[in-house]
Amino acid sequence: MHFRLMAEATSTPVRDGKRHERLKAWIACHELALAVYRCSRDWPPSERYALTSQARSAAYSAAANTFAITVGSMAELSYVLILARDQGYLPGEVFGEVEALRDHASPLTWGL
Predict the structure, then answer these.
(1) pLDDT in tens, 25-65
(2) Does some domain include residue 69?
(3) In-domain check, residue 9
(4) How far is the C-alpha of 102 from the C-alpha of 96, rounded, in Å?
């Protein structure tokens, strides 16, 4: 599984109410959420309401709340990914790719 960064913020006209979609921080958090949803699809059914739900919730919160609680969501997601890796649900290579996306998105949100 390989995750690639989406295009940088565009210079196209902004639709009303969608200004956040041009922010690099939001784009990075959205890419991270997409990657977490993809990589957690194959986690065990027994984790559906625990680890899978927690990982997806933290990733979702980072993108949905880019201006409010992203730092906490990023820290939470980091631990959930580590736990999933150490439980054998997330291959090391995929962990590294998703963690790199998280590392990219995190500092972009700090100045918001």
Answers:
(1) 878 888 888 899 999 999 999 999 999 999 999 888 877 77
(2) yes
(3) no
(4) 10
